[in-house]
Fold:
Amino acid sequence: MSIVVTGASGHLGRRVVELLLDAHGIDPRELILVTRNPDRLHALAERGAQVRAGDFDRPGDLPAAFAGGTRMLLISADEIGRRIRQHTDAVTAAKAAGVAHVAYTSYVNTDVEGNPSAIAPEHHATEVAIRDAGLTYTFLRNSIYAEVQVPDAAAALATGKLVTNAGDGRVAYVSREDCAAVAAAVLARPDAHRNAVHEVTGPELIDARRLAEIYAEVGGKPVEPVFVDDAAYAQGLVEHAGMPQPVAEAYATFGAAIRSGVLEVQTDVVERVGGRAPRALRDVLEEHGAALTAS
Structure:
């Protein structure tokens, strides 16, 4: 009953593997770790894990990379606009390789009609592809990572302003560590999560005003929330962060999704499935204290 983990050399994938080995007692020989960078997993290979090269942009190689696996963690790729093809190819390859169950790192409420986030259609299409392939599944619909707020907090502390297009919307930011704990628990006991949808969130719904307060408390400097519309927010990313206009507009859709309320979800999945109390955003930020004040 071998477990395939894609993106195994990334932050999330590597942590899932460590938890499978150390918290769930999975035999390293049962792990098939697929990555574009096998050299980064030398230590895990020495422990007995099978490390294989695999690239979603080379779909013909994926069936061999997944061969022997019966369950798989499909970690979403990171390039918006290409993921539907990449993920669909990976699902097709998984089925061809004999994988029966796929756990997929999706996105909160990705199937809600009208979700304005640019990534929602890609995650929804992947979920559909997995179902259409006839595979059993667990959809891990992760909320916005708490770690993503570290550079946001650093910018806010540097300028004294938290510029946002999120309005009064709230998000339960979730730590990557907690997402890894849930994923590892699902992979260790997939039958308990057969065809389940888990909205994976942090412990507290936070709006922009509270976010500014947390940044100020952690960074020791005042931070004022400044509310703008989507166009102004995107333009600010172009002018001050150097983002290309299309990327800035896509990034602005996260704030639009928060403002719409579609990301206002808070669950007990981390505790119930992952077996731990979820980490607060403030705790994650405090761990990255040096990064918050570097500028």
About this structure: The longest strand covers residues 101-107.
